[in-house]
Write a structure and sequence with these properties.
mainly alpha; three-stranded parallel β-sheet; 9 helices
Length: 208
């Protein structure tokens, strides 16, 4: 989300955008000289992993954020730890009043709803039991769920016949789908029909 926000601001071409990573600042005693000038011409400053900031650089980042906010610069930051749990320092003071949005893993229902839109877009007939089986084979996030769906979708588009959720699981496990007696009979009938047509055409060509 942080990267997407940065890219969106860059496309708008509405001032400079700066993306900072505190993990890359490990061991820093201070911010580079001239950071005030960079902030003055910025429209957005995005800071990743704010909870990883060391004590010294955390104080510097607190000053930067305070300075930027006074200039009307937008600040977006990510953290795995609530700012209320940070040690009391300048960074904590400026961030404790920030609006916080916590993002967790999507629910299974959300993932199934997400896959429903995928199936309609690909004109595929997959019911909720099949979609639930796809979700159960993912890591519970959007990316792995999309990857599992794509695996099934490619198999279907390659001619694989899906009858139930067990067939979906076989594809995800990369195992062959067991054919029913009816399917084997139909396939054998089709092969015999093709063979009969080939022989008939061959005989016609010989006699002509």
């Amino acid at each position: 989300i942080l990267s997407a926000s940065v890219q969106a601001m860059i496309r708008r071409q509405d001032g400079n955008v700066h993306l900072l990573s505190t993990s890359a600042m490990r061991g820093w005693e201070s911010l580079p000289n001239g950071w005030q000038d960079a902030v003055t011409h910025a429209s957005l400053i995005a800071i990743d992993d704010l909870h990883l900031a060391d004590e010294r650089i955390a104080t510097e980042l607190g000053l930067l954020i305070d300075y930027a906010l006074n200039l009307g610069v937008q600040i977006i930051a990510t953290s795995r730890v609530d700012s209320k749990e940070w040690p009391a320092r300048r960074l904590w003071e400026v961030m404790r009043s920030a609006t916080s949005i916590w993002i967790g893993k999507p629910s299974s229902v959300s993932l199934i709803t997400h896959l429903r839109r995928h199936t309609s877009g690909r004109a595929m007939l997959l019911d909720d039991s099949m979609l639930a089986r796809i979700v159960s084979h993912s890591d519970g996030d959007w990316r792995s769920t999309d990857a599992a769906f794509e695996k099934v979708a490619l198999a279907i588009e390659s001619g694989e016949r899906i009858v139930n959720a067990d067939d979906v699981e076989m594809i995800l496990l990369e195992k062959p789908i067991a054919k029913s007696n009816v399917e084997e009979y139909i396939e054998r009938e089709n092969l015999e029909s093709v063979a009969s047509q080939v022989i008939s055409k061959s005989i016609d060509q010989v006699y002509t």
